């Protein structure tokens, strides 16, 4: 028997981007474990990826190209050869591209976060074809935009510093489920005497384990941050020296904060005045004592109408109290902006003959249903889906489904499994998993460049995304030499070596070692140097004004809430959020039996008062509905959901739910204030006992 250990990287859309060690015995991956030497992974994986071999060798892996034989959405296919598959796709795309190249749309997200299997060869292909560009907004754009206005880039506190913080505010995140290796650091900080405070409408696994949990109404975070600013300024808990040297617009901010006494903030957020005052005092007083105070703000905050402004407002707090002076102080939203990824080399935008329109992935439902018009341009005639599962994850699912049902739409799906989206494919192609291909990764929760070596041969006839686009490019007659580059050659271009943070990037060395930290100072803004136009932390942002926003922090109410839309709330009185379930990764892993078993079935957490009012008992099947649609789930009557809020942990495969639906039946396509992002958690619903379930 031959045994080897291969260095790899977790490909999933998770901030932790763990370093993996794969044990391979006679060509079979027998164990997937965390690299004990990698400082942030420290030998620990989440339960999902510890099961990566189970997913890779799953009996339902797609192993051959297939062609649809049933009706759209029915999921009936027959096996075809690669030659026939590539021929069929190239012919159809070629015919469309000759008339209206923008009628072709890629639809992809972070099924893999790899720089190579993500947007490299695929982007080159679509650029050469002249396809519509996809605005990849489905996750992080609102927050990233708000953060950028304030701090300048997605750069923040280093994960490896948090254990030295004395106060950590976990704001709109559930790291036990979704950012495990941050939680490890937070717990170490707790052991060293730090206080942990969670700000979350739901008593999540994490909120339950913090010293304090502030359960505000969804979408009201900016009001809480403004209330904190009011107290910090009124009680002189600010860092005047840091403000004078490294911030812009304090006087205007002071006026704005004066409009937000704690009473107003408390009322807006649905919490007590003391909660506002004490939070501000704890934060400001600790900073005043010279202790590192840190905020881990996460994406829970930004999936509402005012999500961009919320993140922007929260991101002002560290500069206000001088928290950036310490390596263990400040704020982290994402570290992705620290990486000089060389997207120009990987994606070759220069291959585009002319600028193309952009389609927002968040509104795929509406966009697939649009005809040709001067404003929209040509009707979408072909969608190539890879690294994504739009039928399950995009909002307003009924419209997404109707779009993909269009008889005249040509849909190609590259997948590991027959997902909800794969059911709508005309041609379904088997893709390799992370164990079967090469990749290079950045991270959004730490500062290491990462390498993934292929551990095993491709399963069946599966091919890497890159290879599929290489074959398509060749069949379409694209002869730029860039279409011949291997995955290794692509990976070697992943980071820009001329950038000071990555001058030591060397793909051959990275492959051997697995990971390499960026050149970054421990405390990124201790001496200012923000990436904003002014080089300061911008309390006042002229860029925001130019882009049509309030240049100062402000509160933007949700589209759908009792306070902002009483008429809608009279029909649909409950706010619904659908954050990630611990054992799934978005919709990935839902089909892995052991993990689905751990989640059980789709649940809806509802407060005892709201349950009693509706005659709903724990364990009842309930129907959750609004004007957009409905789905069923099993009620868990629990005070984890604050009164007025229901929580459906997500994202379930629709076809694995009893009614063939999931939470996105009721979410809407309206966009966030910034970044054109989705408003998944800005959703009013009504809940009733389900009578009979029609599958
Ligand atoms: N296990 C697991 N891990 C994941 C994922 C997964 O699906 N499963 N998904 C990955 C991806 S793609 C992402 S983007 C990240 C997401 O990472 P996070 O944004 O940290 O997502 P969650 O961990 O669910 O934390 C969101 C929390 O925000 C709360 N919340 C909802 N609305 C509001 C609000 O208006 N204000 C505040 N303050 N809180 C609110 C929710 O109740 C939830 O507890 O996680 C990644 N990691
Ligand atoms: N209701 C609700 N909806 C949500 C969210 C929510 O909190 N609530 N969260 C949103 C967020 S934050 C995000 S990021 C999106 C995520 O949405 P998606 O990015 O669509 O994520 P997944 O649903 O996990 O689908 C990824 C798919 O990519 C496939 N895949 C993985 N690796 C490869 C590969 O190498 N090649 C190919 N061809 N395929 C691969 C996987 O098998 C999987 O089916 O969902 C969003 N939707
Ligand atoms: S999903 Fe996240 S925590 Fe789990 S192994 Fe991957 S990177 Fe690590
Ligand atoms: Mo995400």
TrEMBL record:
* Gene Ontology molecular functions: iron-sulfur cluster binding; metal ion binding; molybdopterin cofactor binding; oxidoreductase activity
Q: Which UniProt keywords apply?
A: Iron, Iron-sulfur, Metal-binding, Molybdenum, Oxidoreductase
Highest taxon of source: Bacteria
> Which cofactor is recorded for it?
Mo-bis(molybdopterin guanine dinucleotide)
Entries under InterPro entries matching the protein: Asp_de-COase-like_dom_sf, MoPterin_dinucl-bd_dom, Mopterin_OxRdtase, Mopterin_OxRdtase_4Fe-4S_dom, Mopterin_OxRdtase_prok_CS, Prok_Mopterin_Oxidored, YoaE_C
Q: Does the keyword Ligase apply?
A: no
Query: Does this UniProt record's set of keywords contain Metal-binding?
Result: yes
| Residues annotated as domain 4Fe-4S Mo/W bis-MGD-type | 3-60
Family label:
Belongs to the prokaryotic molybdopterin-containing oxidoreductase family.
This one is known as: Molybdopterin oxidoreductase
Provide the taxonomic classification: Bacteria, Pseudomonadati, Pseudomonadota, Betaproteobacteria, Burkholderiales
